[in-house]
């Protein structure tokens, strides 16, 4: 249960964006009288999905191999979390900068690549980008595969309904909610990497148990805020990556990271609002 919701939302968010991107490309080709290129969109989409599954499969096999290792596994998981975090952060930053203008961004890319190879490449890159992000997050966060594909399936159903105008959804609000959740999960990934790294260094006697790095910011593990079983702690852990007994270093860096991304996001929103206001005047 503690990994179902993050995996579902991750699959839903990235799946919906990928499916909508494909829909935008197809609609643009129809509007620009280039429907003969539609089949190349499908070629690129299928190739992107296959590439994503291939990378996901490699990471899955790697994670299973890591699980069979000794305490070195924790150190490896910590390092993998930081690598994944770096990649995920670039994805989140791209979404913050361009997510609100997804239609114009995609259409601009398509208009500059109106050829069989160009259209297939655009579809491949954009679909693969979403798929790779899911694969990396799943590997680092050890999310349930079933929950992940449930989210993707739900996204496909919603995308089809939206494309056929059977339902109306405020995509900006939906993407904002899920982006906020991804930022929180990325912060959780950073906290997890730090915690596992310190634990591994301690287990391998590379770091003294008396090291100030092990000092806890607070300890609420005996209260309802216990992140594994607490009445409030478990939901907070699932939703926001809450830890009931974090090291000071983990606590500071995790929330400094999430706070910084939310600040950048808010700054971009203010910039866009300012531009719209100036244009209106």
UniProtKB/TrEMBL annotation:
Signal peptide: none annotated. It holds the Pfam family FTR1. GO terms for molecular function: ferrous iron transmembrane transporter activity. It is a multi-pass membrane protein. One of its GO terms (cellular component) is high-affinity iron permease complex. Keywords: Membrane, Transmembrane, Transmembrane helix. The chain crosses the membrane at residues 6-29, 41-63, 75-96, 108-128, 134-161, 173-194, 248-265. It is found in: Membrane. Belongs to the oxidase-dependent Fe transporter (OFeT) (TC 9.A.10.1) family. This is High-affinity iron transporter. It comes from Trichococcus collinsii.
């Amino acid at each position: 249960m503690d990994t179902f919701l993050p995996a579902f939302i991750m699959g839903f968010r990235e799946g919906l964006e990928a499916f909508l991107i494909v829909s935008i490309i197809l609609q643009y080709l129809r509007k620009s009288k280039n429907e003969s290129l539609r089949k190349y969109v499908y070629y690129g989409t299928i190739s992107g999905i296959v590439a994503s599954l291939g990378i996901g499969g490699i990471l899955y096999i790697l994670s299973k191999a890591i699980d069979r290792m000794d305490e070195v596994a924790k150190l490896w998981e910590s390092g993998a979390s930081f690598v994944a975090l770096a990649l995920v952060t670039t994805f989140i930053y791209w979404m913050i900068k361009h997510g609100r203008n997804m239609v114009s961004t995609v259409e601009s890319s398509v208009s500059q690549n109106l050829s069989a190879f160009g259209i297939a490449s655009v579809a491949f890159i954009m679909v693969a980008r979403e798929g790779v992000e899911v694969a990396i997050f799943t590997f680092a966060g050890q999310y349930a595969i079933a929950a992940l594909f449930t989210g993707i399936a739900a996204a496909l159903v919603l995308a089809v309904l939206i494309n056929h105008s059977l339902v109306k959804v405020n995509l900006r609000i939906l993407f904002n909610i899920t982006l906020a959740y991804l930022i929180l999960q990325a912060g959780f990934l950073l906290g997890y990497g730090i915690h596992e790294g310190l634990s591994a260094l301690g287990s391998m006697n590379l770091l003294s148990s008396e090291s100030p790095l092990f000092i806890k910011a607070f300890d609420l593990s005996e209260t309802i805020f216990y992140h594994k079983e607490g009445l409030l702690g478990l939901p907070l852990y699932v939703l926001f990556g809450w830890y009931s007994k974090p090291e000071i270093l983990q606590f500071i860096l995790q929330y400094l990271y999430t706070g910084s991304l939310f600040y950048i996001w808010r700054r971009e929103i203010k910039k866009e609002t300012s531009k719209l206001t100036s244009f209106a005047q």
